[in-house]
Write a structure and sequence with these properties.
Strands 11-12-15-18-19-20-21-22 form an 8-stranded parallel β-barrel. Strands 23, 24, 25, 27, 28, 29 and 31 form a 7-stranded antiparallel beta sheet that branches. A 5-stranded antiparallel beta sheet has the order 4-3-6-10-9, with no helix packed on it. The N and C termini lie far apart (85 Å). By secondary structure, the chain is an alpha/beta fold. Helix 9 (410-421) packs across helix 10 and helix 13 (502-521) runs parallel beside helix 14 (561-576). The longest helix has 20 residues, at 502-521. Helices cover 20% and strands 20% of the residues. The radius of gyration is 27 Å and the shape is elongated.
């Protein structure tokens, strides 16, 4: 095949089609030579055309080939020293995926040829493997970026009105009978009217998708017949994962993803991506050579200072991307901008975000990565959510991320689990978490919306399993039940697992409602895990990362319709009442509207809490007055908003407890609107009590009253 070749441009990186041809550009600072390889099919064992790139510009190797079109398959071979002890692992026998590929076709087939060394050698990674890997590795794809967005723009839903739904593309849709079978488990299924209607009816404003950037299956899982279902094993930071494509792999996945976003936006639902920029799928020094390792290992990865053969591992996956290097920071920022501008996503949740903040070994919240994001005119305007920890020393950084960042509040999760499990001495912490965690965020000029509140996440027990199992049951993962957290703060009663005991089941169901009610009445941004609202179970598996089967998929045929109805009413209740989703902190000061403080804490038997009450370690119940007549709540145009006032009763005791409603200063008539013991939510049909009346709260329950007059 004879083709014309021109020098091309060093910018932009990746493969760019201009309507007449394709420009290719690859950053490889320590490389001594680069071959661009063109393929006719994903099954090709060797390239049809090999082009040597010459005269790099500022460490970028580039060329332009007229006549090439979208759908062209390609990869790279990079030349340089193979010196693991110096951090260099160049091996031109390994075909490499373009880090900037917008689409990736084909599946990784595990074979010894994928390794830069000879796996059977006694010298392991110090040996050299000259077997060609082209047959076993996916190929990069040139795409046509054009798409009719029909005027689609970022939604910019207000933070304090946001309700996040964490979901897996396949797990959420694969068993949904309302979705056509041929598209279940795909981006098209997420954008299907049945899915959108479900999310709207539930009250969701943002869907947070677990990783959808191209990932690969781990070798050790493949050997066990398992898969990396969650996808926290990224190899292509620009490419929608082909696992979820119902439109082919030659670029169709890109348009399908865009159509999904456009459909969700039309329904007012934002799209947030769970992104993994802290590590790649290449693992430690014994991992395969798929992309970055072969392109420039010493540049892209954090290596140990005294042993460059090995990697710094702050992620538990074997490697950590070197976000200190300008080219790596550019890769991450280019990827984020691409998803925000070209794919129209509304925000990002950063997996193990502390790893990105490490300058040397310490976590620095003002590190280069955050400086760049703060000044970026595009990324600084989208929703930014940190998982504020990694596995390295000092990696737990809840409360320490910069202004404009939200955080998965692990302290909220742990506190609420402890409280409803019946731990003593929890009231001060419970009060802080319920009011948005001011101890973590207020002094840094952040708002309550800095706190992403959650009870469960993809990693751990489902809500149903949290109240049904004392221990993890991960034998299906084939690691002898050693993986996953050992206890995961279970909140179970009595017999573990399924039971015919009506009393035990009633307590479990009540606990689910308690958790959900606490979550949606807390200040901050609530995050709900897909399926928790309908009682999804993983049968005690609290680490289902490798279970691409019925264990992880939502079983729509077995949903708990009663819990689903309760969840819908609860979220609607939150949306109706801005007092539960304030933009600003409670001040403890009187409001002009009625002269009452915006929040007042009461003992169950009546009377405001004092210092001694807060210090009583045995106390597990509390009542809270929340004033809806405050003047600091504003509408979309800045207008003052008044709301109803509420009295919240929380009883985490094993026994029923009598509460006393406040005196007439706070309200003369009170309407019961929520009772988790009765699975009751209504602003029309509840009983009405007078000021000072006694209220019987069953064990482990929440009751909410609304003032009528």
């Amino acid at each position: 095949m004879d083709i014309d070749v021109y020098p091309g441009s060093a910018y932009p990186l990746g493969a760019t089609w201009d309507g007449k041809g394709v420009n290719f550009a690859l950053y490889a600072e320590n490389a001594q030579g680069v071959d661009l390889c063109l393929f006719n099919s994903t099954e090709d064992a060797s390239e049809q055309v090999k082009i040597r790139l010459k005269d790099p510009s500022r460490n970028v190797w580039h060329t332009y080939i007229p006549g090439l079109k979208p759908g062209q398959l390609y990869g790279y071979r990079v030349y340089g020293p193979y010196e693991p002890h110096n951090g260099h692992r160049f091996n031109p026998h390994k075909l490499l995926i373009d880090p900037y590929a917008k689409a990736i076709a084909g599946s990784l087939v595990w074979n010894d040829a994928l390794y830069g060394y000879q796996p059977q050698s006694a010298d392991k990674d110090l040996s050299f493997n000259d077997t060609d890997s082209a047959l076993y590795i996916p190929k990069s794809v040139v795409i046509d970026p054009s798409f009719d967005w029909e005027g689609d723009r970022p939604l910019k839903n207000r933070y304090h009105k946001t309700v996040i739904y964490e979901a897996h593309v396949k797990g959420f849709t694969y068993l949904n009978p309302q979705i056509p079978p041929e598209i279940r488990g795909t981006y098209a299924a997420i954008g299907h009217p049945a899915t959108i209607n479900y999310l709207q009816t539930l009250g969701i404003t943002a869907i947070e998708l677990m990783p959808v950037q191209q990932s690969v299956l781990d070798a050790f899982l493949a050997c066990k017949g398992l898969s990396n279902y969650w996808g926290y094993n990224t190899i292509g930071f620009f490419a929608p994962d082909v696992r979820f494509s119902g439109s082919g792999v030659m670029g169709g996945q890109v348009n399908e993803f865009k159509q999904m976003v456009k459909s969700l936006h039309k329904a007012g639902i934002e799209v947030i991506l769970d992104v993994v920029y802290n590590h790649t799928a290449e693992g430690n020094e014994l991992g395969p050579t798929l992309a970055f390792r072969g392109i420039d290992n010493a540049y892209y990865y954090r290596l140990q200072e005294d042993n460059k053969r090995c990697y710094m591992d702050y992620t538990g996956t074997g490697n950590t991307l070197n976000a200190r290097m300008p080219g790596v920071l550019k890769l991450i920022m280019d990827s984020l901008r691409y998803w925000a501008t070209e794919m129209h996503v509304d925000g990002f949740r950063f997996d193990l975000a502390s790893a990105l903040a490490r300058e040397l070994h310490d976590v620095d919240k003002l590190g280069s990565f955050f400086d760049i994001i703060h000044q970026d005119p595009v990324i600084s305007q989208v929703k930014l959510i940190a998982e504020p920890w990694d596995l390295g020393e000092g990696g737990y950084q809840v409360g320490n991320f910069p202004v404009d960042w939200c955080e998965w509040n692990g302290k909220y999760r742990d506190c609420m689990r402890d409280y409803w499990r019946g731990e003593r001495g929890m009231l001060p912490d419970f009060a802080r978490r319920l009011t948005g965690s001011p101890d973590l965020y207020q002094d840094d000029f952040r708002k309550p919306t800095a706190s992403i509140n959650f009870i469960t996440a993809h990693d751990g027990f489902t809500l149903h399993d949290l109240v049904s199992y004392n221990e993890k049951h991960n034998t299906a993962n084939k690691e002898d039940n050693r993986d996953g957290e050992s206890h995961n703060r279970s909140c179970n009663y009595g017999v573990e697992g399924p039971t015919d005991d009506t009393h035990i089941n009633d307590l479990r169901n009540r606990q689910k409602r308690n958790f959900l009610t606490t979550l949606f009445l807390s200040q901050g941004i609530p995050m709900l895990v897909a399926g928790d609202e309908m009682g999804r179970t993983q049968h005690g598996n609290n680490n289902a990362y490798c279970q691409d089967n019925e264990l992880s998929w939502i079983d729509w045929g077995r949903r708990d319709t009663g819990l689903l109805h309760f969840s819908r009413q609860l979220i609607a209740f939150r949306h109706r009442h801005p007092v539960f989703c304030r933009k600003n902190w409670f001040r403890g000061l009187p409001a002009k509207a009625n002269g009452l403080q915006d929040i007042v804490w009461f003992r169950p038997q009546g009377g405001e809490m004092n210092r001694e009450d807060w210090q009583q370690s045995f106390a597990r119940s509390i009542a809270i007055f929340i004033n809806g007549k405050g003047i600091r709540m504003t509408g979309p145009k800045g207008e003052p908003i008044t709301d109803d006032s509420f009295y919240l009763l929380f009883n985490a005791h094993d026994d029923a407890l009598s509460f006393v409603l406040p005196d007439e200063t706070f309200g003369q008539r009170w309407l019961k609107v929520i009772d988790t013991a009765e699975s009751f939510i209504s602003e029309d049909a509840g009983s009405i009590l007078g000021a000072g009346a006694s209220v019987a709260a069953k064990s482990r329950s929440v009751i909410v009253f609304k003032v009528l007059s």
